[in-house]
């Protein structure tokens, strides 16, 4: 079952980029929830709200519930394995706060990338150690820590799939699920981030089916994106593009998510403007309609 959504724009036309919160800020919760409904969205990125703003959290929950809009994810985008101990500790505390906020908002999940063994941005600095047994064990320990500390009844903790660390393939994700051994450890499925070469590029539908086969019941959120292989190029260069301008098998993605028994928010991201988001939404809806699926 798919709950479709994307960002809502206010007076500012700036769109969130990679590693930035997609959640709206400065909106009245009622107006924001209604704006999602007006776009035809049934899922939303969590609005930006402070953890100690109990009245604001309560108002957001009530407003979105009244409009039938599911809060998809609370994103915290910083390096959880920063090699500087002070920075790493601060980032993990912020992730713990994000997990707590997700639970209080009734969001489907809290999400962060695992990061990279470097100091600073873990999404753009890469290390061989990211694929080590130590990295896998640390991913397991962190997931257990966030879940066991918050003890969520609703929200799941998730790592977003990322091609530069241990959360990089259906097999590794399935292995993590088994090792973490917590019901509230979920999968945040970003199919584009599993495309790491030409074979995967042309076989994205097969990868999607493998994900559902291996851990379909654990998928609690997904990103709606597209990817295009740069040509001509001898090396592999992949660019995110507006859905419909790439080669991702969106039809299979929608079909596989739709057949799952749980509600899965399917969220557009990383586009430059409201107009591009509207274009993306129209394309994805048209693909779904061709499959006999209404989103």
The major beta sheet can be summarized as: 4 strands, parallel
The gross shape turns out to be globular
Which series of helices and strands comes N to C?
A: EHEHEHEHEHEHHEEEHEH
- In the CATH hierarchy, what is the superfamily? Divalent-metal-dependent TIM barrel enzymes
What is the structural class? alpha/beta
Question: Fraction of residues in helices?
Answer: 25-40%
Approximate strand percentage? 5-15%
Amino- and carboxy-terminal Cα gap: 9 Å
Low-confidence stretches: none
Number of separate domains: 1
> In angstroms, what is the radius of gyration?
18 Å
The order of strands across the largest sheet is 1-10-7-6
Number of helical segments with 4 or more residues = 9
Summarize the structure.
The chain has 295 residues and is α/β, with parallel strands linked by helices.
Topology:
Layout: E1 2-5, H1 29-38, E2 43-45, H2 54-66, E3 70-75, H3 85-105, E4 109-112, H4 133-150, E5 156-159, H5 170-180, E6 187-189, H6 198-202, H7 204-215, E7 219-224, E8 226-229, E9 238-241, H8 250-258, E10 264-268, H9 274-290
Parallel strand pairs: 1-10, 2-3, 3-4, 4-5, 6-7, 7-10
Antiparallel strand pairs: 8-9
Helix pairs in contact: 1-2, 3-4, 5-7, 7-8, 8-9
């Amino acid at each position: 079952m798919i709950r479709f959504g994307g960002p809502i724009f206010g007076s500012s036309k700036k769109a969130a980029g990679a590693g930035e919160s997609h959640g709206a800020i400065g909106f009245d919760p009622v107006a924001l929830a209604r704006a999602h409904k007006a776009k035809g969205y049934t899922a939303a990125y969590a609005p930006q709200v402070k953890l100690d703003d109990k009245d604001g959290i309560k108002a957001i929950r009530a407003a979105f519930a009244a409009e039938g809009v599911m809060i998809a994810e609370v994103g915290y985008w910083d390096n959880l394995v920063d090699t500087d101990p002070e920075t790493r500790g601060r980032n993990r505390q912020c992730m713990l706060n994000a997990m707590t906020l997700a639970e209080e908002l009734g969001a489907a999940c809290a999400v962060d990338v695992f990061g990279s063994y470097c100091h600073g941005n873990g999404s753009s600095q890469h290390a061989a150690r990211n694929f080590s047994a130590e990295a896998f064990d640390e991913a397991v320990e962190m997931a257990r820590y966030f879940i066991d500390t918050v003890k969520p009844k609703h929200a799941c903790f998730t790592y977003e799939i990322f091609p530069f660390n241990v959360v990089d393939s259906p097999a590794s994700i399935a292995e993590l699920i088994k090792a973490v051994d917590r019901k509230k450890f979920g999968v945040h499925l970003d199919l584009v981030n599993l495309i790491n070469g030409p074979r995967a590029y042309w076989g994205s539908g097969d990868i999607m089916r493998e994900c559902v086969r291996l851990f379909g019941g654990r998928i609690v959120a997904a990103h709606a994106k597209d990817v295009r292989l740069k040509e001509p190029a001898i090396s592999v260069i992949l660019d995110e593009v507006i859905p419909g301008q790439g080669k991702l098998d969106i039809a299979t993605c929608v079909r596989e998510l739709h057949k799952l028994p749980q509600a899965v928010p399917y969220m557009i991201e990383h586009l430059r403007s409201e107009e591009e988001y509207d274009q993306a939404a129209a394309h994805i809806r048209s693909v779904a309609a061709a499959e006999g699926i209404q989103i």
